[in-house]
Design goal:
heterodimer, A: 193 residues, Rossmann fold, Arc Repressor Mutant, subunit A, 2 domains, 5-stranded parallel beta sheet, 11% strand, elongated, B: 229 residues, mainly alpha, 72% helix
């Protein structure tokens, strides 16, 4: 099971905080830390609690907001910062956040929006290698020739689970899902022969 | 106030909010020139259900909108099969030939080997789509008509229908990936853009089309099936 994501909320309104807590508890997977009603001790709390996610009302930050957000992002590079908005903010301010949570957001989407922005952050941190390994090329060529996973496992003397892992990685690296699409990819890269 | 479009809105306001709906009107059997009339009035004039038309407009406009079959009467759903068939014809007779023309041109510029394999990929894809549509029109749609007029349905497998929706959407996305990332072409920027936009637009359209079938057609047939047992 995934560990709970710890969430620090910085928001003046108790009504909004309690509402958010109900939605996150309902969705599961989140642990809401004791909230802050203003940003005065935000830095201390971030360092002592190291939350996985920060949700903050931009109105609580002094101008220029973007500078403050960038400073927090530099200190806590793995923590997405979500703006909790219910009034107009300029695009320059909002673009410094990882995501926006609008107060009118549909009930069903609140948790998935927050979950997604945590996943995205982890993806960005790991630099990925999109080159296929030699073994993946072997599997790709056989797939392109129309062999099934079982037949490929027999030919390469590996288990079918390993073949499926290679297939998953090939699709992840190339962005191509169908066997027909992979066949074209193999031709374009001269892998076919 | 509703977050979605509703039938008492002016048809022209809906088009102003999402001009892509213009492409849907012929398939819904609605002609342009509706002045300031509401969706209800325009639909009455064109003999199509306003609730059905609004559902389609919402599907194509709001990412988080999902239709619910239980909100429609049998009368509303009589607009369903003509709409789905008109959409099939639009994809097969207009969009796919348009993409094929651009793809052939782009592939020819990219060299013989690429041309052959891209062309084959596309032809296989087109055949698969045509087969899928023909299957639905022969086996699934007649059952919808029977179901709406409370006649006994014949046995049909809807599992095939929803599985092949995923395959159809996936392959078109593969084609975009291949063209975007892997086909080395210089000097064809405009045509390449045209091609990629045409593919992306068809992907979006097919995704919404599949959603309408998955959320309306399948539950409708399942409900009727359950009632029979």
């Amino acid at each position: 099971m995934r560990p709970l994501l710890s969430v620090l909320v910085v928001e003046p309104s108790t009504i909004v905080i309690e509402g958010l807590k109900v939605l996150l508890d309902e969705a599961g997977g989140f642990n809401m830390l004791a909230p802050l009603h203003d940003a005065t001790i935000l830095t201390e709390r971030l360092h002592s609690q190291k939350p996985d996610l920060l949700i903050i009302n931009p109105a609580l930050l002094a101008q220029p907001v973007a500078t403050h957000i960038n400073a927090i992002a530099r200190q806590m590079p793995n923590m997405p910062i979500v703006a909790l908005v219910y009034q107009y903010f300029s695009p320059q301010i909002l673009q410094s956040f990882s995501a926006l949570l609008d107060i009118c957001e549909n009930r069903a989407h609140v948790a998935s929006l927050l979950g997604d922005c945590c996943n995205r952050k982890t993806d960005e941190v790991e630099t990925e290698n999109y080159e296929l390994t030699e073994r993946e090329v072997d599997v790709l060529v056989l797939l392109a020739q129309g062999f099934s996973s079982k037949e490929i496992a027999d030919q390469l003397n590996i288990s079918i689970h390993t073949v499926n892992t290679h297939r998953k990685n090939i699709t992840h690296k190339t962005g191509i899902k169908s066997v027909a699409g992979l066949a074209v990819y193999a031709t374009l890269h001269n892998f076919s022969n | 106030m509703s977050r979605w479009f509703v039938p008492k809105m002016k048809m022209s306001d809906i088009l102003l909010a999402n001009s892509n709906i213009l492409l849907l009107l012929p398939r819904l059997g609605i002609k342009l020139g509706f002045g300031d009339r509401s969706v209800i009035e325009v639909c009455q004039q064109n003999q199509v259900s306003p609730l059905f038309v609004i559902m389609v407009c919402n599907c194509y406009t709001f990412d988080d909108y999902e239709p619910d079959v239980s909100t429609f009467s049998n009368d509303d759903l009589r607009s369903l099969v003509p709409y789905l068939v008109a959409s099939h014809n639009y994809y097969v007779n207009e969009r796919l030939p348009h993409i094929e023309r651009h793809l052939n041109h782009v592939a020819a510029q990219a060299g013989m080997r690429y041309a052959e394999s891209l062309h084959k990929f596309f032809l296989d894809y087109r055949d698969e789509v045509v087969f899928h549509f023909a299957y639905e029109e022969a086996n699934v749609f007649p059952n919808i008509e029977k179901c709406l007029s409370n006649q006994p349905m014949s046995k049909t497998s809807t599992g095939f229908m929803s599985k092949s929706h995923d395959a159809i959407v996936d392959k078109l996305s593969d084609l975009t990936q291949i063209i975007f990332k892997y086909v080395p072409i210089n000097g064809l920027d405009e045509e390449l853009n045209e091609l990629v936009f045409a593919i992306l637009q068809l992907s979006f359209d097919l995704e919404k089309h599949a959603m309408i079938e998955d959320k309306i057609v399948l539950p409708l047939l399942a409900r009727q099936e359950a009632g029979r047992k």
